[in-house]
Design brief:
Length: 330
């Protein structure tokens, strides 16, 4: 990859979240905040759901991707950007690149779901497929970067990505007022770190919780031990949180501002997905249900509290979704 002078940049602060909000205004949706009397009765709390499943590209990732691309100098914009991902970050980079006339190359495994490859191409991304058993995607990335001068945009461990992700919590608190608690899902920690910057500035008494899948609690282990812990790829339906370690830039922010890290089971995620479909008529992908599951299943007791919950995304294959709803998933 191109050596980025950004790597020497200081960690982002709330000022960077404010600047990101200005950059993405008009491009990213200001997503609605949803409430549910049934959810409030079930928890004894007042829950505010920030619906990033309704964001452009179907997830909050559009915020960070758009902000990072908008920050590039002109020459880098002309050459383009590269990302490797088979998930929401790839689609976000392709989409944000197209809107800003910046070419985007997405490196995806040959066996990625056809729907995801099609969606990435549909958003205008140039997809480069690789054989994940025989080729190294970082090597391909380095080659493309050297040949074409593309700038790599990582999915979470990047100052502008973190600042962009923080704009969702900023909008939430500006809309509903101070919160007692904020629950946010964790993969590499970009969304949680950005959210924590916003919550600390706008609602200083708010306790911030990260929520991970039970099968992959690397962030919880890292948070409690104080050093970044690496784990094997976890087996969970929360595919957006299958990261095996938290970021080097996200971790210090999380350690400083977050109160605790908790975990929820896949069964709780399925129950929560059903709750959103039946009661609130919305599609939330398994990873997007992590934070809500912690509240609805009493993992984080929130009785009597005003609780912000980020629904991070809604990209789930319709067949898989039908299986989750009808109880036939395995
Ligand atoms: C990427 C993603 C996450 C995890 O975000 P991080 O910033 O890596 O912690 C959670 N939910 C969805 C829907 C995602 O796409």
């Amino acid at each position: 990859m191109q050596i980025q002078p950004q790597s020497l940049r200081p960690l982002p602060t709330y000022d960077d979240v404010i600047a990101a909000a200005e950059r993405i205004a008009g491009a990213a949706h200001r997503t609605p905040v949803l409430t549910s009397r049934t959810a409030d009765e079930r928890t004894g709390a007042k829950l505010f759901f920030k619906a990033e499943n309704l964001q452009r590209g179907g997830a909050f990732k559009f915020r960070g991707a758009y902000n990072a691309i908008a920050r590039l100098p002109d020459d880098a914009r002309e050459r383009g950007v590269v990302a490797f991902s088979s998930g929401n970050h790839a689609q976000a980079i392709a989409y944000a690149g197209r809107l800003q006339n910046v070419p985007a190359v997405i490196i995806m495994p040959k066996d990625a779901p056809a729907m995801k490859v099609a969606a990435t191409r549909g958003y205008g991304g140039e997809v480069v497929l690789y054989d994940r058993y025989a080729e190294d995607r970082e090597e391909i990335g380095r080659r493309l970067s050297a040949e074409r001068g593309l700038t790599l945009i990582p999915p979470y461990d990047h100052e502008d990505v973190i600042a962009g992700q923080g704009t969702a919590a900023k909008e939430l608190i500006e809309e509903v007022g101070p919160l007692d608690m904020l629950l946010v899902c964790v993969g590499g920690g970009g969304l949680l770190a950005g959210s924590a910057l916003a919550a600390q500035a706008l609602s200083p008494a708010c306790r911030i919780y990260g929520v991970e899948p039970e099968a992959g609690n690397d962030a919880q282990q890292s948070f409690r031990s104080g050093t970044i812990v690496r784990i094997p790829v976890p087996v969970t339906i929360a595919d957006g949180a299958q990261t095996t370690y938290i970021g080097q830039k996200t971790f210090p922010i999380i350690r400083a501002l977050v109160s605790d890290m908790v975990t929820v089971s896949d069964d709780m995620l399925v129950d929560t997905m059903r709750f959103f479909a039946e009661r609130m008529k919305i599609v939330v992908e398994p990873t997007g249900c992590l934070a809500a599951a912690a509240a609805l299943h009493g993992i984080v007791p929130c009785e009597g509290k005003r609780v912000g919950i980020i629904l991070s995304g809604g990209n789930v294959d319709p067949k898989a979704f039908a299986g989750f709803l009808s109880g036939t998933f395995t």
